[in-house]
Write a structure and sequence with these properties.
Elements: H1 2-6, E1 23-26, E2 29-32, E3 37-45, E4 51-59, E5 64-68, E6 73-74, E7 81-87, E8 96-104, E9 107-116, E10 121-128, H2 130-134, E11 139-141, E12 152-156, E13 159-165, E14 171-172, E15 177-181, E16 187-192, E17 194-195
Parallel strand pairs: 2-9, 10-16
Antiparallel strand pairs: 1-3, 3-7, 4-6, 4-8, 5-7, 8-9, 10-12, 11-13, 13-15, 14-17
């Protein structure tokens, strides 16, 4: 009817004829990357009378928090309140979820869902010198498959990984290296082989 239509605003969903304060949020959920960052949402009083509201993180409080929001009172037609949320890096291998709850006096509570993807990094390893590469030098991470010099491995977990180098005749392989992956940008490592042949035959 006309009363309901007058309470609808673009991006918000409200059903029924309001007779008391009512909360509408936009959007209702968001999906974010595995790195730390900022997100948020807006909410509005689409009902009648003053909305006295409170906001809390009811799930995921160890990594999701409220960075900023307005005061705890909102009048009808006053406009939307903006809530800014901060979230930490997700070191797990699965998606995690956090929930923010908005409760109001004489108004049904609403929730905002944050789905955070797992963090993933990348590792690129170069081998020197070219003579060792020609002789079959390779590298691998955490005991996995052997890789060629310059290969980039993606979708790697946050944390410490071990890079090792293949033993080849005529060359002393570099020792293992423990690498910390802490950013989505590729982490670069160089392993240098040393020739064990007689002086004068170095390449």
């Amino acid at each position: 009817d006309g009363v309901e239509a007058s309470r609808l605003r673009s991006g918000y969903v409200f059903v029924g004829t309001p007779t008391a304060p009512a909360i509408a949020i936009n959007p209702e959920s968001v999906e974010v990357s595995g790195e730390s960052g900022v997100t948020g949402f807006e909410f509005e009083n689409v009902g009648e009378g003053t909305l006295e509201w409170s906001l809390s993180v009811v799930e995921g409080a160890s990594w999701l928090r409220v960075a900023s929001c307005g005061q705890g009172e909102l009048l009808p037609g006053e406009g939307a309140e903006r809530v800014v949320l901060e979230y930490d890096l997700n070191p797990d291998t699965v998606v995690r979820e956090g929930t923010v709850r908005i409760a109001g006096t004489n108004a049904a509570a609403k929730t905002f869902l944050v789905r955070q993807l797992p963090w993933s990094g990348a590792l690129q390893v170069f081998i020197e010198p070219q003579g060792a590469i020609d002789a079959g030098a390779q590298w691998r991470v955490d005991g996995g498959q052997w890789q060629q010099s310059g290969t980039i491995l993606t979708n790697m977990r946050f944390g410490v990984h071990t890079v090792s180098f293949r033993a080849i005749p005529g060359w002393a392989a570099p020792g293992e290296q423990n690498i910390s992956l802490i950013t989505n940008a590729p982490t670069t490592v160089t392993g240098t082989y040393v020739s064990t042949t007689e002086t004068g035959s170095l390449r």
